[in-house]
Each structure stands twice: as structure tokens, then as C-alpha cells.
Amino acid sequence: MQQPLYVLAESTQRTSGADARRSNVAAGRAVANAVRTTLGPRGMDKMLVDSSGGVVVTNDGATILKEMDIEHPAAQMLVEVAESQEAEVGDGTTTAAVLAGELLARAEDLLDDDVHATAVVEGYHEALRLALDAVDGMLIDGEVDREALVTVAESAMTGKGTGDIATGVLAAIVVDAVLQVADDDRRVDRDDIRVFTHTGASAAATELVRGVVFEEEPANDNMPRSVEDATVAVLDTKLDVRSGEVDTEYTITSVDQLDAALSAEDAERRAIAETLSAAGVDVVFCSKKISDPVAAYLADAGILAFSNVKASEARAFARSTGARRLGTIDDIEASDLGTAASVRVERHGGDDVAFLEGSDDSRTVTLYVRGSTDHVVDETERAIDDALGVTVAAYEDGEIVPGAGAVEVAIADRLRSGANAVTGRKALAVEAFADAVDAIPRTLAENAGLDPIDALVDLRARHDSEGVAGIVIDGPSVAITDPREDHVVDPAAVKREALESATEAATMILRIDDVIAAN
Ligand code: ADP
Ligand code: MG
């Protein structure tokens, strides 16, 4: 009799073939379903409660999936779709997750009809190519100027909980932030746009500071709390006697010698303040420690100094004022210093908040986000984050498309007419892809309280006759019209990324026919 052959450890759990596939597809769809009701301006919010009772109320797909603590490996892949969408273009996470879930659902039907997974995967890739073509065909002509960017930013924030601040106002702030830090090649470094949140005022008090907002007190109480037209030094060196760095031993044999040693140290500390003062410095930002005696001498010299500022802040102070970051104050020169319109410390809601308003061409800005409660501030920050993502994407490539489902209708249309050209069973997968893309306008309609089937029929009819049609939500009203007229536009990059990442995740999951889990 033949002995059984054990290849895997006994505790290993293995599912294969249709079972593995079904379980993966179901897990992926469950994730997509978790976020689908949040899609669009009429999307609902989710309240997420963690194990220690912390509460997050949000409408943001990436945040929901991150907070959900998902364990299933296939579901985890969908979470990664949302994460990469967030990292690449900063918005469109719900769209990407819903699309990936729909692609899986439609694939499941085909697999049940005995279409091989390979044919589905190939068909999906073919469909992706056609879909990207359709996006190109929907690009809105004309330059993406400030006004166009404001519409993009506003579309990304519609329906998000931004407290009592109008999305139009917030959109303008976001766009001005991006334009302020963009370089001549229209490139934007997101590190140059800082967001500083602080509760204790209504969201309407949110403002753009062309500089840095930070939470720091002056190094000494006698320092001025406000300096106008400041000359600024940014230092990455400790301000104290140098000998303090290494343990030097003095051999002191008399009181005179002790006095001499102490006064030599004192003179060195005094000299630090004198050197900075002689160079014309009014404000010092130091990423290392400023010792108390040195801070006292700086205060005597009328200098405002901040000790132990964070490294990221030191970068921002330098970018905002044009100062060079110095590792030593020996040979400090005027060209090493920067300028600021003002540096001041204010009391806001019981805390010290410091403001540096940089030079006119400050390369760093801060969105100073206010709100009455932590929940409002956090959700406003997430809305701003999405708006920044879309504004940067639209500004960098200069490409925008109509929103409100218009692109998706055009894609589905292109796929259905292109499916004929695709041979064999792959054509079925191209059609399935079209059905999956329909889920975006269908969900927008559903979330807006329309009958999804009727809405899709009207939408297609209008698309056929006018070329561009979306489900446009404007306050309380919903209409099937041209979204461009109501300024509902999205960056092309967000649409492309959503299509690509959803296809990638869905096909990756579909290719799996064996799950082998170590216990
Ligand atoms: P995502 O995480 O995918 O960005 P959102 O909840 O932000 O999800 O919804 C984005 C979708 O909502 C996009 O398709 C966008 O075009 C659409 N949208 C934005 N504003 C409107 C509007 N006023 N009317 C209809 N659709 C809109
Ligand atoms: Mg969005």
C-alpha cells in the first residue's frame, strides 16, 4: 500500500480552485460595499469606533478602509488600492475601491459561466486600454487656470463635512496655497504646503498663511512676542558654550581660577548673542537647544528666539524666509539670513500659537485650519487633503475632465462599441468592464435618492445626444446635465489612476486559484 505524501505542514490551511476564488472575490466586494454609500456629494458618513472607544466620523474612502482593520488578504489588496490612489493623486479612493469591487463581481459571473480566469484578465486589460482612451477623449479644452482649479478643488470637497465654511472659500484657499509654492515648471512639492489644525474657533476662521504656523514659545519670557520686517537666522547648532559638548576637566586650584573659568564661559555665551545681534538678526529659529543663559542674553539684545524647533519646521522656516540653514554662527553673513514680514506669538484658545509670515515669494505656506471640535477639524483637514491632491494633479498635468459620472458614461459607451473589435471570450470581459464602470454613476444616483436604473437610462440618452452628461447635484437639486456648466470637474489623473489601480487589484485577485495559509 502506498504511503500518503505530506508536502505541507499539517496545520496549514489550503483552499483552492473555485472555493479560493469565491472567498477572495467575496472579501473584495465586501470592502467595496463598505465605502460605496459614501460616494459623491450626497454620500453618507461612517462612524468608526476603535477598540479603545476613539471615534472617527468620515466620508473619506481611504480613511474608512484604513480604520477598518481588515484582515482577509484579498480584502487587504483592495485597501491597498485605496492607499495607492491616495498616495498617487490624493483623491478618488472611493471610486477606485467601488470599481475594483464591481470588476470582481462581474468577473465572478463570467467565471461561473465557464469563462477562464485568464480570458477575463486579458479582457480587463484590453478594456483598461480602451477606457484610458475614452478619458483622453473627454479632456476639457482650455488652460487650467486659477478659476478652473477652484472648480476642481470645490468638486473634491462638495459634501464633505467642512463645518460652517463654504467649500468655495476653502477651495480658493487651497488653490492659492498650491499656486504660491509651485515652481516655474508647475511642479509642486507637497511638503511645502503645511496644514496646522487648531480647535477653538469656527471653521470659517480657517485661513492661508504665507509662511509657517507652529506651536512654540519664545526661549525666554523677556523676548519680544512680535517682530515686524524681521531678519531671520535658521540654525542647526546648539547655542551654548562649546566646551559643554565634551566633558572637559578643569584643574582648578584657587578661587581666582574658578572665577576666571566661569567668566570665560559667560563671555562666550554673551558673544553668541553679540554675534547674532551684530549680524542684524531679529529672530532665531534653532533646531538644537538654546541654553537658558544664552536665551537671556538674546532677550537682552531684543532678539526673539525659538529653541529645539522640529526639523520639518526648520526646513519650512528656511523655505519661507530664504534663510540658509547654518551649522555654525562663525562667519555668519547677511546672505545667510532671510526675511519675514512678521513673526509673532499669539494666544489662541488658551495656547501659544506662533506665526511666521514669510517674504512675498515664500516657498512654504500653511493652511491654518480652525473648527469648533476635533471632529470638525479632522474632517475639514481630510477634505482639504483631497482638495490639495486634486488641485496639484490638475495643475501639474493641466488636464481636467467633467465629473458627476460623465467620464464613466463615456467609458462604458466606448467599451460597448469597442467590444466587437475584441475577439472571442475576451469580448465578454470588456462588456463586463463596462458594466462595472456603470456602477459609479449608478451609485451617485442611488446616493442622491434617484432610481438608479432610470437615472442610468436618462444619462445614456443625454450622453448620446449631447456628448457630455452627468448626474449633477447642486444643493438640494439633482439634474442630468452637462457637469461643466455647474463646475463639477475632476482631474484626468484621478480617473486614470482609479481605472488602473482598480484593474490591477481585481486582476491580481482573479489570478489566484490557491490560498495556502500557514497557521
Ligand atoms: P472619491 O473618494 O472617489 O473621490 P467622492 O465621495 O469624493 O469619492 O466622490 C467623487 C465623485 O463625486 C466624482 O465622480 C465626482 O465627479 C463626483 N462629484 C463631485 N461633485 C459633484 C456634484 N456636485 N454632483 C455630482 N457629482 C459630483
Ligand atoms: Mg473625492
Automatic annotation (TrEMBL):
PROSITE patterns: TCP1_1, TCP1_2, TCP1_3. GO terms for molecular function: ATP binding; ATP hydrolysis activity; ATP-dependent protein folding chaperone; unfolded protein binding. Keywords: ATP-binding, Chaperone, Nucleotide-binding. PANTHER family: CHAPERONIN. Belongs to the TCP-1 chaperonin family. This is Thermosome subunit.
